[in-house]
Amino acid sequence: MSETFAFTIKSTGLDEDYRPSDNTRITTNFANLARGEKRQENLRNTLKMINGRFNTLAHWDNPEGDRYRVELDIISVEMAMDAARPDNALPLIEILKTRIIDLNTDTSIEGIAGNNFSSYVRDYDFSVRLLEHNRGQPGFSVPEDFGALHGNLFKRFVNSSVYRAHFNKPPVICISVSSSKTYHRTDNYHPVLGIEYRQDEYSLTDEYFKKMGLKVRYFMPTGSVAPLAFYFFGDLLNDYTNLELIGTISTMDTFQRIYRPEIYNANFAAGKSWRPSLEHQDYSLTRIVYDREERSRLGIEQGRFVEEHFIKPYQAQLEQWFAPSAH
């Protein structure tokens, strides 16, 4: 299979001058922030929030709270079904890569790849396939092989020579916890990740990421009001440095305050037993414009795109590649 197709990576800086390219996944949340009259103000204020959050968490040897600056790169992953025709590549995944600038020592520290996670095939699975599977059914159910294709593609990418050439550690993806589950505070506390939460049953998203080879833990960092879901390979607490983890926390805690203010910008913190809800009313809004309805609509449109240009044309080939006997 590795001889048949090829991954390519493109990197674009996410700063206040960022403009989504014509071929970007426009459902990517940071692309949503970068459109409209307030685009530059949105991006500038988002980056200020990230830097402020980083310096608050990295408070040692940082008396003025201004030692560090976080820089972000959008990593766009494309996959050519025919390695001999890289010009025919399809967009597959977009993630964020953090870079930490120590202004005291004028050094650059590589952060973690992953953070935000955006995927055409996931749009297809959740916004097209899952809805069609349940249309007209009396109860909710999930197709037996739900997420298998996406999981296999992701694992192939992370294990590829292309990934290893660009990143020195496995990815960590950090997203919102599920509003369908109840989370319970534990006694485990990490100096950077904060208080650990657990739940009794994995969510559909947790199971989906499990097929990508990722484990999950839930932590509420100091200064946050709700736990974040961290998806990772290996050992989250020991494989990454404090500054690497803070880069991910500061980036994704900021984005979640913008995307999910009902949960992550609530006016009180999660308790011992807590269930997140987008119906919650006691929260504060940031001054950053984010169009959540557009995000949902475009998820369906781009799910249809990948169905037309990837799933249906290559279905037989993909099934052959990922059949158990092929390994």
Tag the structure with descriptive keywords.
10 strands, alpha+beta, 327 residues
| Mean pLDDT level | 88
Strands of the largest sheet, in order across it?
Answer: 1-2-3-4-5-9-8-7-6-10
Beta strand %: 15-25%
- The shape is globular
Summarize the biggest pleated sheet.
10 strands, mixed
Distance between the termini: 10 Å
Determine the number of helices (DSSP H or I, runs of at least 4 residues).
10
SSE sequence, one letter per element = EHHEEEHHHEEEHEEHHEHH
Radius of gyration: 20 Å
- Give the count of structural domains: 1
Uncertain spans: none
Secondary structure category: alpha+beta
Number of strands: 10
Considering DSSP H and I runs of 4 or more, what fraction of the residues is helical? 25-40%
